[in-house]
Predict the 3D structure of the following.
Amino acid sequence: MRLPKLTTGALVAAIALVPATRVAADGKDFITGALIGGVAGAIIQKEVRKKKARDAQIQQQQRARTRATAPTATYKPKPRKYTAKKAYRPSIPATTEGREIQSALTYFGFDAGTVDGRVGPKTRSAISNYQRYMGYEATGTLTTFQQHLLTTSYLRAEAGGNSTLGQIAALPDGTRGLLKLYRQDLASGTAQRRTLTPEPSVAYTDL
């Protein structure tokens, strides 16, 4: 290790002040030599501490420069979650024709939901069931003939009163059986009306 010029000069000056003959002859010279050695050791330790402090400062600066030049992590935005928007569906208009179809379907046991005149999914499901029962293709949309048969059968059954109830009781399919029965009448070309003897009228007299 090299000592600074100041430290080396101080040592030389301290040694030069003590004559060589006196060191060898006198016991007090030993103490003087120890003092000189102590001063030199203190100076060396001080220089060592300074060097360590300088080295620590240099290392700290190097670490700071390393952190400053280190590449920063690239920011990756998280992908956004897009929710599918529901398609806007306009309100189904209520019509008198729609109410007639719903009433007829419900009467014959095909649940069309609320009779509101709006031919929605439930009504179309009922139409499909009606079509399957009658042996037609289940499209959910009535043809002109299918609609005519359905609504006229409903009106005819409603107008039949007790006659209709007797027919329903005699048919294996109950109320639905009227549809096939009335279709047979239409196919025969005679539009035969199946009616029973009307009930006798009841005369009301004053008591």
Notes: The first helix runs from residue 5 to 16.
